[in-house]
Design a protein that fits this description.
Layout (H helix, E strand, L loop, with lengths): L2 E6 L6 H12 L3 E7 L1 H8 L7 H9 L6 E5 L5 H7 L2 E7 L14 E5 L7 H9 L1
Parallel strand pairs: 1-2, 1-4, 2-3, 4-5
The structure holds cytidine-5'-triphosphate.
Length: about 130
């Protein structure tokens, strides 16, 4: 079984994050995770993460289901990362459904359903109330 690669911010780590990483690991022999830099998250979501990049990398790299982590610097560099880590499967959450189909010739592209009713944004909102 080959390498699975996936990406995300994984800020205020929650069970939706854990479940997708566990399912991703089951698809291959190794799981490599690109964790968005603080800067990339700002570009993507218009706010800085609550946890810093190095804290998020430390959390994700400590999980039993994760074999390797790296900082994802650019959303448009998926092809470069797939080649660098020799990934056979690109795994994305259903929130990205269809967006990476152009990479189908390079590796298998799989979208998994998100865990319903939880997201970092919702957790932050709930704590704020
Ligand atoms: N994810 C999931 N189920 C959830 C939330 C996230 O499967 N309920 C997955 C996403 O599809 C992605 C990964 O976890 O593959 C990292 O998502 P991320 O954007 O970091 O987390 P969100 O909780 O979606 O963050 P936000 O609310 O800031 O968008």
């Amino acid at each position: 079984m080959g390498v699975v690669i996936t990406f995300g911010t994984f800020d205020v780590f929650h069970v939706g994050h854990l479940r997708i990483l566990k399912r991703a690991r089951r698809l291959g022999g190794r799981l490599v995770v690109g964790v968005s830099t603080d800067e990339l998250n700002f570009e993507k979501k218009g706010r800085l993460p609550v946890y810093t990049q190095s804290e998020r990398l430390e959390i994700v790299s400590s999980l039993k289901c994760v074999d390797e982590v790296f900082s994802e610097e650019s959303l448009d560099a998926k092809l470069m990362y797939i080649k660098k880590y020799k990934a056979e499967i690109l795994l994305m959450g259903s929130d990205w459904g269809g967006k990476f189909d152009h990479l189908c010739g390079v590796c298998k592209v799989v979208y998994l359903e998100r865990t319903p009713a939880i997201s970092t944004t919702e957790v932050i909102e709930k704590i704020r109330l």
